[in-house]
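Running this now, will post back.
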Amino acid sequence: MRTLGFAALALGGAFFAAVPTAGVGAATCTKNLAGTIRGARSADQLVTVEAARYGTTYATLRLWQRDADGCWEPAAGPWTARVGRNGIADRRREGDGTTPTGLYTIGPVMYGVAANPGVRYRYRRVVCGDWWVEDPRSPAYNTFQHVRCGAPTPFRTKPPALWQDRVAYRHFAVVEYNMRPIVPGRGSGIFLHVAKNGPTVGCISLPRRELTTTLRWLRPASRPLIAIGTRSTFRRL
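Update: finished.
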């Protein structure tokens, strides 16, 4: 929220307070969680996933929108999200059950077993043979790949495949963790997906209704970012 100073002008006994005055009450933004994340200056939309501590499997997810004055304003939430079964971590490794802390972009394609729910991103409906590669030895590590349905894969796989989990992967967005560059073993397949009954293996999950609202709200033109961590983590981003 931006505040401006105004001078009151007396004209014929009437006071007019709608004239902005230079140097009086410099523009400021209301202090809030989004405003502590300095690395988000390039974005106009921000998703925050705030955990109370590193070992928890719960987090609070909020949506933020930058207003015309350049200040962050709440857009939706707070909602309860789930994170990795071993909490969050600054240094994630493949299979360690943690969700990576940090500030990340949203992938250019959204996916799902179900039909497009009305997102503004390109959308790919998941079918048999669609995989996210979690094999650190594969040159396709941490990328989406399609293999002919029923054919052997050229990489090691971990069940379930994308098309096999019809709950979690009904709709999902890709959090671009370990993408540029991709480092073998640092972790793969970090998604924002539908919640099941418990923590995730490293993704962020939301109840279906809130997840759908979030995916529809995200706009590529707004250069959205997602911040994951504790309050103190955010101050370092």
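The helical segments are 208-217, 231-234. More later if anyone needs it.
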